[in-house]
Design brief:
184 residues; mainly alpha
Length: 184
């Protein structure tokens, strides 16, 4: 009788660990899907932004072409999560370059379409930032679960692997020189 009770307890513990791992993996996938939705919203805004500023910014044509190309790459079906994360970093940097360049065009900066697009992009960037934080927390919980004893044994049997978190680039870590932005 004691052996049956011990066996039942062990089975319950294994089932709980299994369910916990599956729940953490699904949480990561669910939050990444949320990031995808916000990134899609951003990708939909990019053509409007590019077409709005294109006629004003002939000198920054390279930036606009880069943003358009990155958007096209990001919209391709079947790209991995790691590729999406890498493209997101590049698009974030390129959009920042456009916003800085817009400051050099007073007529463009005062344009109501541009002001609306900047506000909308700012809102989308805030949503992306919040989604990244939630994703990184879910990935941290997941990575802890697949690396800590005893769930790591079951995670190895289920072939669960570490997930990559969103990280900022070295340029984004630097303090913003507001004075230099106004001198441009």
């Amino acid at each position: 009788m004691t052996a049956l009770i011990i066996l039942a307890v062990v089975i319950v513990i294994i089932v709980l660990m299994y369910n916990s791992l599956v729940a953490k993996k699904n949480q990561v996938d669910n939050i990444f899907a949320g990031i995808d939705a916000v990134l899609k919203k951003r990708y939909n805004l990019i053509p409007n932004l590019v077409s709005s500023v294109q006629q004003y910014m002939q000198h920054e044509r390279g930036i606009l072409e880069k943003v358009t190309e990155l958007r096209s790459q990001a919209m391709k079906p079947g790209i991995s999560d790691e590729q999406k994360i890498a493209l997101d970093k590049q698009i974030t940097s390129a959009l920042g370059s456009i916003m800085v360049a817009v400051e050099s065009y007073p007529d463009l900066k005062a344009n109501t379409n541009i002001m609306h697009l900047q506000r909308t992009l700012s809102e989308v960037e805030a949503q992306i930032s919040a989604a990244r934080r939630a994703y990184n927390q879910a990935v941290t919980d997941y990575n802890n679960a697949i690396e800590m004893i005893p769930t790591n044994i079951l995670a190895n049997m289920m072939n669960y692997r570490r997930k990559q978190v969103f990280e900022i680039t070295e340029d984004e870590r630097k303090n913003v020189d507001v004075g230099a932005l106004f001198k441009q």
